[in-house]
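Reopening this ticket.

The earlier resolution said the output was attached, but the attachment link was broken on my side. Pasting everything inline this time so it's all in one place.
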Amino acid sequence: MKRCAPHLASRCRPNQNAQRTGQAPGSVPPKPTRPVFLGAACTVFGIFKEYTARREAFLRAITTDEEELFCKFNPSLDNVCLYGHNNGRWEVTTYESEREDPSRLPAGPAVGLNLVRDNLGRLLWLREIAIQCDAWLMRMSFLISAHLMNANARRRLFNHISSLKTVHEAFLDSDTYQRLSREAEEKERSGVAAAVDQEEEIDFHLRTLLDGMR
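Inline output:
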């Protein structure tokens, strides 16, 4: 009987792991499946329905519930993120709690934006949240759509998503954005006026001082 060379012995032996799992030696292993996300429906309609509900949750958070969202993104807390549920409800949770529950991956958007809340200004801060929500929604949808394994289905899903305004676009069209824009403009005008008044007052005191020295 022909014996294997020592350096080829491992190649000649049957795959013991394959024998234990019942898999034929040399066969292609089954494709891994992603964890099933809570509430995920592996159809174009189901995923788009979830996308729509989560999108509405984000829009409600940055428009109707904008004041509540601002309070919950307290800079004194650890990194927090905004999470949109598939039932249209939103919540603010810590980044660590997101990591502890793999079924909720990817972590919600706007991680750490509570730390810069008071430095960006309300309007710019909300716009940044809206942009990150859009990125998260796309990532979430196409992560779930990996179950479809069909290019045509994913193309249809993308077309459905593109038929809607993004969260950022919808925010720019909202009454909340218009109101905050007016408030920012008024604050800027009042700040400029105050600076001009202060400069005029300084000039007046300088002229008075110079007149007294003559």
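Reporter confirms the inline version is readable. Residues 6-40 have pLDDT under 50 and may be disordered. Residues 44-147+159-172 form one domain.
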